[in-house]
Q: What sequence folds into this?
């Protein structure tokens, strides 16, 4: 059996060993054994933290053909490919034939005998994966911390590239602090690429890595999947454990080839240069990862234990007991942020933990898109507000709905048939991404065709939680699960599940100063971490309604209708049920109680009365 | 094998120009094909010329044409013929062994038997039930393919399309061989056909020998299910063309000439490569041979990319694409955007990383060599036949569906399975269910009225927030060919069709809009009321004639748009005003409204029992688990299949009793109206009734429309009428609200006011001119009912129409 770290540094040895052992017994199912082996290894305590991550470690520090992990989103799915699962090589000097294994590798060894009877053709699927879009800077900070600790403790002594490893940790901190300064110094949070490009991005400039959001960085990766590829879906977030392959032989770009070769090989010249560029980019930029094992990420929060909540009851019960107190703290914090409006803060919490948990035919259940109207237009309030939320959620995106943005941005992913890939758009987001639409930026003017399409796409996203990807000849619907918050001055032009008008209790003379005083600084990260854990856990709790409560809710509804049928419609009941659910979850309760129902009714009534008031004031027709 | 050459880029379609023809006829004489055949290493793919001498004698001067589609020149993982066994991945190279009893190397195909079997198939196969459009004009009781051969002899197009399904039903073993070893079997078929053909029609002259093109192989239907086992087998998959390449001339045979002695030699392509002769055989100089391009032989080739059709895909995945190579006359047969069924041989080729390095990428490139294309959407534009849309149902499925249909409450079951998340609105769901099934299509074009509309159009109107949009979304997701648009976001162009210039080819291309795309489906239009008038006007033609006429940018055509329209509209005043008529509430032109078979109001019923059930429904929606839901309702997939089955296979006709019942119903409807001096039914309503009754019969899988169907149609129609055509002033159902936009009472009232006004003016005596305001006040003073300004204006207008008076500005002048 290989020693502790051999399976990380030389996973192919393990594979080859099993392959060789299986030769005597052709039906041994060695493929399954390999997967099983790595799964078992990774299950060991903390084992997965020993595996270097492609997200944090620059590619050139990673050893080729070693085991790495990658936290990513499936951005595109390429066509399945057939490869030589097993093949025979002939040594030209001795003429000896050796059977070799082609799994988990991109390139075969010399002297392949194409005519061998023993060649086994197998099928695998390629996914184009990008880092999870909109990951917030605090995220990698935490990860690199935890990684630095574990790597220094365990991996470094045993590997030969210890010095570089040390340097890497510094790097990580530097990067993080850089991101940090961006946070503070740069008022514009459109995440434009303002930082000095590192060596890696500079070389990447001529190749579009197809990130969904503008200004994203990080490695993208071609993940080769050997089993069960049907179980993966586009936009799934995964942590992939696989064998890194960066063989320079893969980087044969069309323009590097001399002309003679393309004449000789008519089949290869058939692909356009664009297609080649996309499907076989240089391995130094887009490494290949041969998947051994993939773990779906139910949440994207590094502070939480990676196992599911059910498996980790100790953690769950400790957080649950604290939930009410953390909620109170968070409520106070957000109330300050929302200029003293406690009701809006309450709703904001509900919004932040909302989640589409099921779909009934076309109807997504549990979505809670919120329209925060009455935002002060002055002093970039919305942007500061977004920065504060950014500190709380793992991934988020700020979309300033300026006319220019709406007319020019690519929101909906579109299939590019020339390059044969799905060109990403800003709405290709991972589940539970926080999408902040800033409508205060919208001025009067004309939307052009793209603009109209973009607004329709946003509307569809909010109402049905789906995005229709543009496949040129037809559209295809992809369900999504994105928390949309619209900040606007008046009522938003986009639909929303609930609208709340901000009523500021304080009117600070200098908004900028006021907000930066409130904002929790990353130094006080223990407080922030509490909030972060709270939000992620609350979102994942299970929830049920007892028969008793069902009855009482029904009675309530009938009573409300009896008094004034106009006041409560089915839609209101829909919303109140969602509010009640989120309210219970935010308090750490996994089933609906009479109290939470009444409270849900109460806050909804408060909200509505506020809206009516507001309507009377400015006569804004719905 | 050595075909007459074609210069690169010249197409050799069936309508080959004279120059090409001449070329073809002259070459073979000076250059005997058979010699080359014998020496060619490529001949393993075409056993014909080696095994027997007979075909040559009968096929005489007609040259054989190379079939690059069968891949004899492809650089496949194949072996050198004489040394090595073939590779194990199913790629079977073969060498025909001489002699009748032997099989082709690597297969179990015996050329002689195979040929005999196929000839027998051609001579004897009869399929009286064939309904394909290709067979139009053929006698179904005669051997089908012999008639086709006759056609070939007349038309001169040497291509014989063979339906694999028919081969299978005739001889399963032959079919299996065809699927597994297409590379060997198809040339054998070619040989068999040609023998047969020239035996029968010895005098006919063809451009080249007949080629057999099998289609409809059942091996694979879906691109996603292609796997390594399919390599080198005959497959049929469906997909959509997304890109086509330029025409690629592929060298089939290189022509070399010695620079020293002018001796010329030909070298055929061997697995994608040409071996340049190093030594001239004639003068023994080394490296003296030069390639002469314009005497080399080329064949046309085109790369086509096809993509999975959206219907075949599992949710949440992106479509796969596959490369297809089309050869010779299949080049340029398809355009991007076409939906096609393609039959061909699946290939895999290893990739070399670079010509210098010897290690290869361990990945194969895959493609399909096309043998036959069949467009699936062609018929939609021409409306020839609907069978192409037939979905294949397994026996089990049909059985389940029939069992379901036999249940007495199938109608209720299906309607409750429709959009289960939307509560109640039973009748609306039933209406939509009938719309999904549609009526029977009737053709009266011979008597001059053209096609009768079979589609049921439905309008939903009502308060905002009564889940109209949700219902539309559901229907859109349910039907395979549904389109969803919003009135606000769609223009007339987006609904109909527009002409676009293709950026690559500079060709004008007709791009179809939502209505045409939903031909044979349902077009869901949300926010119907917010649609601009010009946009709405295009619906007039679609909703009754079911066609769409286009005349723009030099393209004049009529497209089929046999689509059912499901529209949703909000009332003008955002809340439904029960005191107003439907027309007044939604302000749609009545010309359009009368084209809807059913107009439903979706209102809040506002009663306690309803509220309770609604609350229960909603709460359970939020906490019931998936499994419970599954148990309660029919699966969406079953519903979809049920509808598809009924739509394709069930064509109910009116029974005697049903016609009687319909007549009675219609007469009754007219009677109700005539009693009060108004007409409450028009022939359009009768047609609606018939459609609904037919649809209901379809729900029951019944081939006959019975009285119960009529009863239900009547009930539903009445329900819809009660809701939408009730005159708010009298409470009676009044169709004329929908047909003229004004209820009969309102018209009567207008008449009365006009008469009163006339009397008033006459009473005033001989005053030639009056003040407008004065007259209004007088009339108001006289009348006991309130007279609005609008009513007064209308009265004035009707008097003006009688030429009694004229209104200029603020004065009213008497004429006469």
A:
């Amino acid at each position: 059996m290989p020693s502790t770290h051999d399976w990380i540094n030389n996973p192919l040895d393990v594979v080859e060993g099993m392959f060789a052992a299986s030769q005597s017994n052709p039906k041994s199912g060695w493929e399954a054994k390999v997967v099983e082996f790595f799964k078992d290894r990774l299950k060991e305590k903390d084992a997965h933290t020993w595996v270097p991550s492609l997200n944090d470690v620059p590619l050139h520090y990673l050893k080729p053909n070693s085991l790495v992990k990658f936290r990513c989103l499936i951005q595109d799915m390429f066509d399945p490919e057939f490869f030589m699962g097993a093949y025979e090589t002939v040594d030209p000097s001795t003429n000896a034939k050796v059977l070799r294994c082609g799994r988990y590798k991109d390139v075969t060894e010399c002297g392949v005998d194409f005519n061998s009877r023993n060649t086994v053709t197998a099928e695998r699927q390629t996914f184009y994966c990008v880092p999870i879009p909109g990951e917030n800077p605090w995220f990698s900070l935490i990860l690199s911390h935890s990684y630095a600790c574990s790597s220094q403790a365990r991996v470094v002594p045993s590997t030969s590239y210890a010095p570089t490893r040390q340097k890497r940790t510094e790097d990580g901190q530097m990067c993080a602090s850089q991101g940090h300064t961006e946070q503070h110094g740069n008022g514009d949070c459109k995440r434009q690429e303002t930082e000095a490009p590192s060596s890696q991005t500079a070389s990447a400039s001529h190749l579009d890595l197809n990130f969904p959001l503008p200004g994203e960085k990080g490695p993208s990766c071609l993940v080769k999947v050997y089993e069960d590829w049907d179980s993966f879906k586009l936009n799934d977030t995964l942590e992939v454990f696989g064998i890194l392959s960066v063989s320079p032989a893969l980087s044969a770009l069309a323009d590097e080839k001399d002309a003679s070769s393309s004449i000789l090989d008519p089949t290869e010249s058939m692909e356009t240069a664009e297609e080649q560029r996309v499907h076989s980019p240089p391995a130094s930029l887009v490494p290949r990862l041969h998947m051994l094992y993939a773990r779906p990420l139910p949440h994207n929060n590094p502070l939480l234990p990676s196992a599911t909540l059910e498996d980790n009851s100790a953690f769950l019960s400790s957080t649950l007991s604290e939930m009410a107190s953390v909620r109170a703290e968070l409520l106070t914090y957000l109330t300050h942020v929302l200029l003293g409006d406690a009701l809006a803060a309450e709703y904001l919490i509900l919004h932040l933990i909302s989640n589409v948990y099921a779909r009934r035919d076309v109807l997504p259940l549990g979505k809670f898109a919120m329209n925060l109207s009455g935002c002060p237009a002055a002093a970039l309030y919305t942007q500061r507000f977004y920065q504060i939320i950014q500190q709380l959620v793992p991934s988020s995106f700020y979309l300033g709905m300026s006319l220019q943005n709406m007319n020019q941005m690519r929101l909906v992913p579109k299939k590019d048939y020339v390059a044969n890939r799905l060109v990403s758009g800003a709405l290709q987001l991972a589940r539970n991404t926080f999408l902040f639409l800033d409508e205060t930026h919208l001025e009067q003017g004309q939307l052009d065709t793209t603009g109209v399409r973009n607004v329709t796409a946003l509307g569809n996203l909010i109402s049905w939680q789906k995005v229709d990807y543009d496949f040129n000849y037809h559209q295809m619907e992809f369900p999504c699960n994105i928390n949309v918050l619209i900040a606007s001055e008046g009522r938003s032009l986009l639909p929303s599940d609930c609208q709340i008008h901000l009523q500021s209790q304080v009117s600070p003379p200098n908004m900028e100063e006021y907000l930066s005083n409130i904002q929790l600084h990353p130094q006080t990260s223990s407080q922030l971490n509490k909030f972060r854990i709270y939000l992620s856990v609350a979102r994942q709790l299970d929830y049920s309604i007892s028969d008793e409560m069902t009855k009482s809710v029904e009675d309530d509804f009938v009573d409300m209708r009896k008094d004034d049928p106009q006041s409560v419609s089915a839609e209101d009941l829909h919303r109140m049920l969602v509010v009640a659910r989120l309210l219970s979850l935010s308090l750490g309760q996994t089933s609906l109680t009479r109290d939470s129902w009444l409270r849900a009714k109460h806050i909804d009534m408060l909200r509505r009365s506020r809206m009516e008031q507001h309507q009377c004031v400015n006569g804004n027709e719905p | 094998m050595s075909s007459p050459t074609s210069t690169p880029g010249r197409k050799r379609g069936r309508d080959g120009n004279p120059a090409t023809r001449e070329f073809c006829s002259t070459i073979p004489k000076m250059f005997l094909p058979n010699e080359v055949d014998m020496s060619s290493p490529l001949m393993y793919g075409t056993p014909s010329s080696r095994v027997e001498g007979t075909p040559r004698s009968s096929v005489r001067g007609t040259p054989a044409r190379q079939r690059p589609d069968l891949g004899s020149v492809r650089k496949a993982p194949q072996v050198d013929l004489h040394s090595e066994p073939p590779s194990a991945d199913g790629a079977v190279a073969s060498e025909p062994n001489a002699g009748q009893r032997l099989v082709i190397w690597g297969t179990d195909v015996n050329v002689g038997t195979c040929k005999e079997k196929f000839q027998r198939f051609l001579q004897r196969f009869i399929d009286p039930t064939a309904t394909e459009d290709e067979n139009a004009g053929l006698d179904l009781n005669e051997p089908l393919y012999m008639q086709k051969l006759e056609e070939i002899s007349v038309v001169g197009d040497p291509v014989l399309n063979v339906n694999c399904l028919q081969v299978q039903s005739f001889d399963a073993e032959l079919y299996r061989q065809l699927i597994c070893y297409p590379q060997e079997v198809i040339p054998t078929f070619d040989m068999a056909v040609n023998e047969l053909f020239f035996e029968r029609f010895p005098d006919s002259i063809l451009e080249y020998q007949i080629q057999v093109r099998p289609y409809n192989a059942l091996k694979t239907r879906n691109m996603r299910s292609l796997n390594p086992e399919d390599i080198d087998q005959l497959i049929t998959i469906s997909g959509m063309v997304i890109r086509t390449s330029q025409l690629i001339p592929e060298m089939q045979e290189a022509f070399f000439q010695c620079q020293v002695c002018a001796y010329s030699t030909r070298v055929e392509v061997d697995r994608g490569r040409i071996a340049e002769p190093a030594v001239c055989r004639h003068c023994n100089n080394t490296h003296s041979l030069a390639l002469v391009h314009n005497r080399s032989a080329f064949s046309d080739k085109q790369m086509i990319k096809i993509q999975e059709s959206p219907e075949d895909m599992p949710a949440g995945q992106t479509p796969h694409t596959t490369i297809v190579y089309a050869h010779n006359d299949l080049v340029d047969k398809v355009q991007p955007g076409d939906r096609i069924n393609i039959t061909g041989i699946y290939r895999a080729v290893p990739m070399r990383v670079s010509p210098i390095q010897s290690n290869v990428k361990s990945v194969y490139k895959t493609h399909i060599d096309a043998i036959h294309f069949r467009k699936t959407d062609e018929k939609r534009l021409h409306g020839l036949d609907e069978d192409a849309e037939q979905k294949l149902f397994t026996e089990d499925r049909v059985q389940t569906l029939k069992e379901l249909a036999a249940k007495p409450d199938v109608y209720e079951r299906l309607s409750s399975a429709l959009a289960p998340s939307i509560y109640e609105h039973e009748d609306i769901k039933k209406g939509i269910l009938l719309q999904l099934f549609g009526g029977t299509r009737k053709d009266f074009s011979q008597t001059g009225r053209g096609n009768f509309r079979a589609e049921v159009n439905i309008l939903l109107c009502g308060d905002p927030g009564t889940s109209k949009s949700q219902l539309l979304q559901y229907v859109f997701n349910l039907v395979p060919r549904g389109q969803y648009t919003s009135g606000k976001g769609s223009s007339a162009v987006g609904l109909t069709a527009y002409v676009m210039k293709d950026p690559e080819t500079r060709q004008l291309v007709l791009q179809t809009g939502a209505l045409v795309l939903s031909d044979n489906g349902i077009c869901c239009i949300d926010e119907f009321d917010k649609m601009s008038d010009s946009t709405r006007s295009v619906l007039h033609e679609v909703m009754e004639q079911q066609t769409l006429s286009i005349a723009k940018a030099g393209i004049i055509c009529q497209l089929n748009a046999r689509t059912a329209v499901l529209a949703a509209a909000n009332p003008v005043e955002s809340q439904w005003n029960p005191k107003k008529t439907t027309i007044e509430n939604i302000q749609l032109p009545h010309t359009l409204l009368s084209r809807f078979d059913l107009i439903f109001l979706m209102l809040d019923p506002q009663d306690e029992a309803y509220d309770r059930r609604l609350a229960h429904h909603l709460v359970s929606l939020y906490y019931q688990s998936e499994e419970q839901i599954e148990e309660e309702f029919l699966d969406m997939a079953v519903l979809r299949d049920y509808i598809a089955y009924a739509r394709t296979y069930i064509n109910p006709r009116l029974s005697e009793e049903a016609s009687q019942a319909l007549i009675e119903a219609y007469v009754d409807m007219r009677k109700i109206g005539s009693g009060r001096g108004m007409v409450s039914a028009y022939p359009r309503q009768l047609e609606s009734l018939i459609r609904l009754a037919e649809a209901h019969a379809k729900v029951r899988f019944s081939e006959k429309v019975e009285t119960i169907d009529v009863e239900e149609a009547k009930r539903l129609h009445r329900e819809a009428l009660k809701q939408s055509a009730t005159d708010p002033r009298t409470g009676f159902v009044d169709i004329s609200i929908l047909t003229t936009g004004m209820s009969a009472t309102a018209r009567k009232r207008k008449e009365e006011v006009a008469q009163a006004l006339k009397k008033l003016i006459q009473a005033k005596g001989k005053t030639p001119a009056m003040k407008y305001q004065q007259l209004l006040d007088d009339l108001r003073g006289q009348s006991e009912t309130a007279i609005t300004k609008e009513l007064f204006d209308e009265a004035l207008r009707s008097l003006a129409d009688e030429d009694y008076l004229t209104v200029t500005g603020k004065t009213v002048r008497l004429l006469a």
User: Anything to note?
Assistant: Chain A has three domains: 11-149+211-257+273-296, 309-537, 542-621.
